[in-house]
Design goal:
Blueprint: H1 5-17, H2 39-43, H3 71-75, E1 83-88, H4 92-102, H5 109-120, E2 131-134, H6 139-145, H7 149-161, E3 170-172, H8 184-194, E4 195-197, E5 207-215, H9 219-230, E6 235-243
Parallel strand pairs: 1-6, 2-5, 5-6
Antiparallel strand pairs: 3-4
The structure holds zinc ion (2 copies).
The site of one zinc ion (ZN) has 8 residues, from helix 3.
Length: 245
């Protein structure tokens, strides 16, 4: 078959724009199918693996056989059941998320897709999920950024699990700026006030997975879970691409 000249031109243009080099180290070769991240850099990503806190998914060093909850979860009152993430948000993992979110590095998506399928499918899935709810951005921020990274990631997870993505249930009506100077409690209260219900739908009998790019303190995903539970949802779990540890 004679290759379509338009396809050939597009491919050479793409190669010019995105040479087949690793976008993290700029050194090793890496193909589009690899998300332009070389094997060495991929190998330096730390996976979130057991043993971990049953609740928030914080990995725990050591040989722990029984179910365990971290001190933070024993004290806290998260509205979600379990939070799980694919990789640790440090080193190469942190760089991947940062570039994806702030520099529109959508070419990482084939890689994320592979990792989501490999690392996320055993859990949180289970059965009977109603769908995936991405953490919404404030409309102004959404306009500035032109995309919501949580929604794009929710679509990857949704495709992997065969679940619909529902971005119409929760809204963000207040932007939450830098909060580093606030205490953990004050921050959580602030974040909680930033979200509201976007529909009057009765969610009784439904179960949701809230999706976001990074889980840090859990305040954001917890606030979204709280809205869904407040509308009657039976269960809400959290899934994020990365997680601070
Ligand atoms: Zn590399
Ligand atoms: Zn925990």
């Amino acid at each position: 078959m004679i290759p379509n000249p338009a396809v050939r031109i597009t491919e050479s243009l793409l190669r010019l724009l995105y040479p087949e080099r690793c976008q993290l180290c700029g050194d090793q070769p890496a193909s589009r199918a690899e998300g332009f991240v070389c094997a060495t850099c991929q190998g330096s990503v730390r996976w979130i693996e057991r043993p971990l806190c049953e609740r928030c998914g914080l990995p725990f060093e050591g040989d722990l056989k029984h179910a365990f909850e971290c001190p933070n979860c024993v004290e806290g009152d998260f509205a979600f059941g379990r939070a799980r993430a694919v990789f640790v948000a440090s080193g190469a993992g942190r760089e991947l998320v940062h570039r994806y979110k702030y520099h529109r590095a959508f070419w990482f998506e084939p890689l994320f897709d592979r990792w989501v399928r490999r690392q996320s499918l055993p859990e949180p899935p289970g059965q009977g999920w109603s769908g995936i709810v991405p953490v919404p951005l404030h409309p102004v921020k959404r306009r500035e950024r032109e995309f919501n990274q949580a929604e794009r990631l929710a679509r990857l997870l949704g495709a992997a699990l065969g679940l619909p993505v529902r971005a119409d249930l929760v809204r963000r009506h207040a932007p939450t700026g830098t909060q580093t100077r606030l205490s953990r409690k004050a921050r959580a209260a602030n974040v909680r006030r930033a979200f509201g219900s976007a529909s009057d739908a009765d969610l009784s009998g439904t179960r949701w997975i809230v999706a976001d790019d990074v889980f840090t303190t859990g305040a954001t995903t917890d606030a979204v879970a709280r809205i869904l539970r407040g509308r009657g949802a039976d269960a809400v779990d959290v899934w994020t691409l990365a997680r601070g540890i």
